[in-house]
Amino acid sequence: MGRVSFLGTSNALTIDNNPYTLVSNIKTLASDIATNPSGFYALANNYDASADGTYFSSPIPTTFTGTLEGLGNAISKFSLSNPAEGDAALFVRIDTAGTVAHFHLLNIELVTRFVGAGLAVISNGTLTDDSASGEFSGLSGVSRGVSVAGLVNVNGGNITGCHANVQIIAGTVGALAGGLVAQNEALIEDSWATGSVEVQKGTLRNASRAGGLVGINDWSISNSYSSAKVRAKATAWLGGLVGLNDGFPNTATISDSYASGIVTGSLPDHIGGLIGWDSSASGNVTDTYWDTTTSGITNLSQGAGSPSNDPGITGLTGTQLQSGLPAGLDSSIWSEKSTINGGLPYLLAAPPPH
Fold first, then answer.
1. Which helix or strand (DSSP H or E) is residue 352 part of?
2. What is the predicted pLDDT for the residue at 235?
């Protein structure tokens, strides 16, 4: 959708026969949700959160079961630094009945010593056309590996048409990082990520995991892509799209998706153009691709770091990806134009800026 704004919060707004409370800032939204977690709320206009200063805990700790309609508006310059081993995001938890749509977080800064993301630590609800951009850090020196993501740390609901443009650095052994989601336990579709994802520490027994879109996929990713740079300075499972495609038993699937970001690390058997390590059943990855030109991974057997020659993953040059949609990328969902996304496939429902 486009953007709808109001001159104030006293205006009336009704959507699908539901009266919405207009809010203009984070503190009012948090207060209203604390009073009525299942209410209907809408962001009345863009809000610059720099005047709030730095938050030292998540501003909305109440489990959200209502609806937040962003109306295409954005909260910018939200800053959160959690000095303890706690959760760090705008929302701590969006529950199953919760919905956040057309809501954007721009140029945010987040520092966490445990778990962090832009929008929510855990979302079991429905997220549609939401986005986040900014710089995220997972500090070293804590008792357990940090987990950092652009939009949601753990997704147990539906994410559709969302995107993130973030720079993530996770600095602990056994860290987990994803450009959009750290751990996906449900559905991601029609979504994308760009920017960079870096993990700095890891061992053979406790490797870090990082993916341009998702760190660990335990369920389903479809019609999605990443152009994020993925990098490790130590032992890690790295993938242009997903670090670890896992799931138990054999539940993790990836389809009709691709990655184009550069992937760099120290151990080739842990690094793949699309997936770092694919432990799902054979056949669970279908019609997926990586760009052998931009990724730096030209070995056509290295779509996954492990296993080699993982079925369902195909390496294509940038020219090949720009020369028409590859098999599985439906023209009713995807398109190509030389002036959009560098000529690579993009999602009609969630086009990148151009």
1. none
2. 81
CA 310/CA 327 separation, integer angstroms: 17
The sign one gets for the Cα dihedral 210, 211, 213, 219 is negative
Amino acid letter for position 173: V
Which pair of structure tokens corresponds to residue 84? Answer: 């303890």
Using DSSP, state whether 167 is helix, strand or coil. strand
Backbone dihedral region for residue 49 (phi beyond 0: left; psi -120 to 50: alpha; all else: beta): alpha
Chain segment 218-267, per-residue pLDDT in tens:
999 999 999 999 999 888 899 999 999 997 777 899 999 999 999 999 77
Answer yes or no: are the C-beta atoms of 159 and 129 closer than 8 Å. no
Domains of the chain are 13-347 (2.160.20.110)
Using only C-alpha atoms, the chain has a radius of gyration, in whole angstroms, of 19
Q: CB within 8 A of 275, min separation 6: which ones?
A: 211, 239, 241, 242, 243, 244, 245, 254, 285, 303, 304, 305, 310, 313
In this predicted structure, what is the pLDDT of residue 141? 52
CA 79 to chain centre: 18
Q: At residue 190, what are phi and psi to the nearest 5 degrees? A: 50, 45
Question: Which residues are paired to 178 by β-bridges?
Answer: 149, 211
Nearest to 218, CA basis, from 184, 178, 191: 184
DSSP 177-196: EESSEEEESSEEES-EEEEE
Tokens, residue 340: 């959009």
CA distance 197 to 167: 6
Interatomic CA distance for residues 140 and 187, integer angstroms: 30
> Residue 83: is the preceding peptide bond cis (ω within 30°)?
no
The pTM score is: 0.97
What's the angle, vertex CA 337, arms to CA 333 and CA 343, rounded to 5?
Answer: 100
340 - beta bridge partners? 337
All residue ranges of the chain with pLDDT < 70 are: 1, 140-144, 269
